[in-house]
Structures
1.
Amino acid sequence: MASITKFILLSLTLCVLHLNFCHGQNAVKAGYWFPDSGIALSDIDSKLFTHLFCAFADLDPQSNKVTISSSNAGPFSQFTKTVQLKNPSVKTLLSIGGGNSNRADFASMASQSSSRKSFIDSSINLARANNFHGLDLDWEYPQSASEMKNLGSLLDEWRAAVATEAKNSGKPQLILTAAVSFASKVDGLYQYPIPSVSRSLDWINLMAYDFYAPDRPSTSTRCHAALKDPSGQASGSSGIADWEKAGVGAKKLVLGIPFYGYAWRLVNANNHGILAPANGAAGPDNGVERYQDIRTFVAQTPGAVVVYNSTYVCNYCYAGTTWIGYDDNQTVSTKVSYAKQNGLLGYFAWHIGADDNLALSRQASQAWGA
């Protein structure tokens, strides 16, 4: 009995000392939200999620500190309190950066230990001041081997800092995550710092979408977030396999699911399958369409047809010369089931506000199960 007790104590000690703190997270059913996303914070059914990301905090390029804009200060400060009214166990994370942030600012910040410290210390202070349970880095994307090396230093120093802060404050250690390219190399060139990712992040959010868009010279319709692709091109499953081959375990991987699609303009209305000839976007904003707007398009457009393609695992709809590739209920259910069956930690959605009355959020939660 004494030897068993000693073994248990030793195991617990190693767990606490390990840089990648044992949060005991069984699954991640997550989604991103931002103030102008189209859904009020109070309307989110947080029972459908285990984690919610609040986006985005900013990086001040002069001070290298993480800041929250004055317009977001109110919603961000109330984020955790509000979503926990419906689900007291939901965990919240403050996401930093985003696709519209300046990647050069992140590269500059990560290049020096002093500026990394400014970033790290300010992020921890902001998270605690606004009652978040964790922090999420969305640097899109490091663009050189040296930037990836600096990212590794940032992640390791961040983990050490949150461990020290938790020890000194007596509070649970902050969760650390990052939104990353769907594959372990950005543009197939720049390898993420795999050892640092594995030991210093609780998980990574694979942005398994935006593989294709009407503005990237392309002459045919494509599913921008296909789970599979028989041609061997970009897909969610190939990204998962690539990260695992690089050395990141499945339990560190969370699969991204888009709640939006892209509308393409068909060259010939009678040729409307995947890879049909197309000549650009059908509509403004490069053809980006929220799921709720796609549902409206289908309901209100005479002759609109919806197709589920099991080979690619994606949906598309068409009417006239408009063709939209997106994720509908069956696609979401298949993707979530795939993630669970392949041992991934979970899934996340970008973004909750694009959903149609939380229909996809419910479908995803149901597909994963308890």
2.
Amino acid sequence: MRRTYNSRMSDIDTRSPDYAALARDIKCWARELGFADTGISGTRLADDEKHLLSWLDHGHHGEMEYMARHGTKRARPAELEPGTQRVISVRMDYIPPGTANAWGVLKDAEAGYVSRYALGRDYHKLMRGRLQKLAERIHGAIGDFGYRAYVDSAPVLEKALARNAGMGWIGKHTVLINRNAGSYFFLGELYTDLPLPVDEPASAHCGSCTRCIEVCPTQAIIGPYQLDAKRCISYLTIELKGSIPEELRTPMGNRIFGCDDCQLVCPWNKFAQTTTEADFAPRHSLDGARLVELFAWSEDEFLKRTEGMAIRRTGYEGWLRNIAVALGNAPQSAAAIESLNARADDPSPVVREHVAWALAKQRR
């Protein structure tokens, strides 16, 4: 059901709102709440729906069955949330100042690379809370209205909606790019029944550049704007449960949670903005921690140290599986072999399999 406020009509100015002025106010309020940018779009996503259905038909979603399960709701906001007329899209930068240099960590094969978005607090609750406050500001101005806030919490084509709201274009790596801020940001949406004026969609500016396609360690970007998730390291280290295909383990290098390579080489990220959100600061030195130290975490330590973080999504078994692969790819060392041997008889068959693979690589 759509969220609405129930206020006494006597407390509210019942005249029809000036929606153009309200849209301007919404953008100001959103900035005051910590969002870097805000845009408003309609709900038509016909071309994006065709792209989505083709992607699903080709099986590029792998084991992410939820991508297919919701059918066309993902591309039809009014089916997901009846009454939706507009979508307010927001974005929030996530790279904190002082974070260890990403390329430096990737070149240090004895360190574990965690995607920069996952180093601090999980953004979902934080952004949903801010969107709720934005809704409260709107209610304070006009009274009751229908809305629902989403931050990766429902079948939403967030990048297409943000593009239509003028916040950036979808690059050849399928990530949204903003010409003034690169691509290191989170997205969130407020579906609403308010007939707000919409913004102009953003135009694309990738040109002839193919750096993101060329750099992908596993060749997951199979063509411009085409991602085979089954080969993507973010999928392999987070979404995939069970064994990682052997031919993709060596290309994973020391990436233990997600991958940023396609963004790291993007020329537009020279304009990337650092965040002022303290909650996104790296925790437990995860912006460059040693693999052998991370591999020694007990399950209790893992759960305690990743509380409130996106890393929890991979689960303890997935965490150990990913680190085992990274240790196998690390330079041969007594420390790596000792660390792997300590888990050679792990209760998880998935962990044991990847440890055996890593030990075989270390002993060559």
3.
Amino acid sequence: MDRLAHDIRAWGRALGFQQVGFAGIDLREDERHLDDWLAAGQHGDMDYMARHGSKRARPQELVPGTLAVISVRMDYGDDDPDAAWQTLRSGERAYVARYAFGRDYHKLLRARLQTLADRIAAHIGPFGHRVFVDSAPVLERALARNAGLGWIGKHTCLINRQAGSWFFLGELFTDLPLPADPPASAHCGTCTRCIDVCPTAAIVAPYRVDARRCISYLTIELKGAIPVELRAPMGNRIFGCDDCQLACPWNKFAQRHDEPDFRVRNALDRATLVELFAWSEDEFLRRTEGSAIRRTGHQGWLRNIAVALGNAPRSAAVLAALEARRDDASELVREHVAWALERHGVR
């Protein structure tokens, strides 16, 4: 098994994973943390977080026969935090979370992990396995921590000492008794930059995020109206939020990715709110094909941008864009457009 583990690491690196680790399946402490979070209702409308009961923290119940988990990371950072801060300071431009710039990472990582599984099978013969990329009830960050890939920071993202936190995670559940790596130790110390910078105060305590206040949740997971008191703090963030990662000092070690699928599409690193608000549903679906952004849907996309336009500097272009959707077919969009217009003094 030690030799096989060595080979799996090499095969994983050849497939583009920056790191491969191995974890056991004991997640009892993390299960207690999850249960407490769910009991507090801090998962908001994400009912799927509680739907699968204990399976999320018990890999052997999710995939019977699981003995070990192969955990991988793939970098997606662009090594240019100043560009992100500049976009956030520009009220006319739209801020999209860095991970959503290119192709949907789920498909890429899943395909690479399946290729890794096929390579293992070609070497040892058929074995029990299942691939996961944020697609099932899996505590991926806890497993990655136990596999030595990094520690869970106070913002609840995984942090690696050599790579920061700009990376994706994926897992391969296996029935192979692979040797577990030493878990990563934590190195946040007394730093609270991620907590202090959060626009909506969603990090309510170290290692505890109230999803109901998190901009990533509000712009992606929430399907209804965004709470009025949280709209102004959202600024120009229209899909996700990176502030806590941008503020993290460990990201000075983040590595620039060279994966073509993660390159920016639709000029999302410099697009204006007015430009994106003009996308019809057909254009939205065409431009977001194969993108994580499609998850929010066209109605959610317009809702989010309407809020950002309400926070943008008043201009003729901003007011014209909002007026053009004052009578939108969606009641949800109309309500947020009305709020935005009122922010600019138009009733």
4.
Amino acid sequence: MVSSMGLEWEQVVVDAADPAALGRWWAGALGWAVVNDADDEFEIRPAPDRLPGIVFVPVPEAKKLKNRLHLDFRPDSQAAEVERLLALGARRADVGQGRQTWVVLADPEGNEFCVLSQR
């Protein structure tokens, strides 16, 4: 048995042109709480005292390529969730996935994420 060495997953950091706007979009999409709204970082969490969170930080350059890391979400209803996210401002994304059981979307700054099918 390997010890975890006291390591805890704190957050995912997302580079953003407008951290507050992108953070607010994700907070609304996930129903999460805003826990930090500073100029240099915007953080959301499932609840104020629950980890992991997502931190949005400012960067000067725009996103250019497919993300090397993306989030997957498993909803109760894939079709309903895709429509809800599209209505919030997500867009469909083609990363070369072809026909799959998941749907690839992108947030307002182009970061891809997947909405998986029901189990």
